[in-house]
């Protein structure tokens, strides 16, 4: 497994991380045994970064990872946790809390659910508009000093917020959506991160399966986030799948899958970018790991750019109401 530096922390991270959200119902039903087997397969392959959120399945995802890590050496795994999203008993999203007291409360429950003594990378999932980022990051910094957190990350925030946060405490990485059809970070956010020595952990590299080469129109199940995602809606999905067809021709010429081309493209954007793949099954994980062996030439990159130009996607990456809450989109 190729290892890369995680920002300026001195910590080495695998060139591919495993995003575990889909193992807790966000994309419809998942199989618990297969989810744990997939986590084990990832770790055995040298993947050392597991990404989760305390609100994925209202704690289910953390408990699942905790179960999967039993009997494993703790220091061999980097656990990245997002916090702050609020949900009610019906699973509805009801806000975000980045207050210092809430940060420390969220963390204490996370440690309990995961069954660990510390979190490797702890990050607010969003910017709380009612709490200065300095206060939120300062509270995590207190937890770093106390030994409960190793590194501080951010998620879906803009360049100005990144600079303010980094002035309080060194930031290891920014987690943000990045794919062939989600490239908004390239203009201001990525340059700011590179100036400050902050890595990117890129989620959505297959745009929630849309550009995986496997997804077909009408495949959304009940309880699947994609049922309300603009890019999967009638009128948009057809245009987006046409981009996938163009990408497929390039993949076939290289003798690889569409998903592998899409993941390899993200990885090719720099050694400070670590793709997170949301594999829920071992076969999908194997396919994603194969992307690490796909070395794109300048000609390949030019062909990919021509097939899927920047801003070619139809529809936003989230519904408009959610986009309005993203500091990274301002």
TrEMBL record:
In alphabetical order, the GO MF annotations are:
oxidoreductase activity
Which UniProt keywords are present, listed alphabetically?
A: Oxidoreductase
Q: Which residues form the NADP-dependent oxidoreductase domain?
A: 16-307
Report which superkingdom the organism of origin falls in. Answer: Bacteria
Q: Where is the signal peptide?
A: none
Write down any Gene Ontology CC term. cytoplasm
Against PANTHER family, the record matches this protein to:
AFLATOXIN B1 ALDEHYDE REDUCTASE (PTHR43625), ALDO-KETO REDUCTASE YAKC [NADP(+)] (PTHR43625:SF40)
Q: What is this protein called?
A: Aldo/keto reductase
**Organism name:** Metarhizobium album
């Amino acid at each position: 497994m190729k290892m890369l530096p995680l920002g300026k922390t001195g910590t080495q991270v695998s060139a591919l991380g495993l995003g575990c959200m889909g193992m807790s119902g966000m994309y419809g039903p998942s199989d618990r045994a297969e989810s744990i087997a997939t986590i084990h397969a990832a770790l055995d392959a040298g993947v050392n970064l597991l990404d989760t959120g305390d609100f994925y399945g209202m704690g289910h995802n953390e408990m699942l990872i905790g179960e999967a890590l039993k009997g494993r050496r703790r220091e061999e795994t980097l656990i990245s946790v997002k916090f702050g999203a609020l949900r009610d008993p019906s699973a509805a999203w009801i806000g975000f809390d980045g207050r210092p007291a809430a940060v420390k409360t969220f963390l204490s429950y996370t440690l309990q659910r995961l069954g660990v003594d510390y979190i490797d990378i702890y990050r607010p999932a969003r910017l709380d508009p009612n709490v200065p980022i300095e206060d939120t990051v300062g509270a995590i910094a207190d937890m770093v000093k106390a030994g409960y957190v190793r590194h501080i990350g951010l998620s879906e925030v803009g360049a100005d917020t990144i600079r303010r946060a980094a002035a309080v405490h060194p930031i290891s990485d920014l987690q943000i959506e990045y794919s062939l059809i989600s490239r908004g970070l390239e203009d201001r956010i990525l340059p700011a991160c590179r100036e400050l020595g902050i890595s990117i952990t890129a989620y959505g590299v297959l745009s929630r399966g849309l550009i995986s080469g496997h997804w077909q129109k009408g495949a959304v199940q009940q309880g699947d986030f994609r049922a309300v995602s603009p890019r999967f809606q009638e009128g948009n999905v057809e245009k987006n799948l046409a981009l996938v067809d163009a990408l497929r021709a390039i993949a076939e010429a290289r003798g690889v899958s569409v998903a592998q081309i899409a993941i390899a493209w993200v990885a090719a954007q720099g050694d400070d970018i670590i793709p997170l793949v949301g594999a829920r099954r071992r076969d999908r994980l194997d396919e994603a790991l194969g992307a690490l062996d796909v070395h794109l030439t300048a000609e390949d990159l030019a062909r990919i750019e021509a097939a899927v130009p920047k801003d070619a996607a139809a529809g936003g990456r989230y519904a408009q109401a959610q986009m309005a809450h993203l500091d990274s989109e301002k």
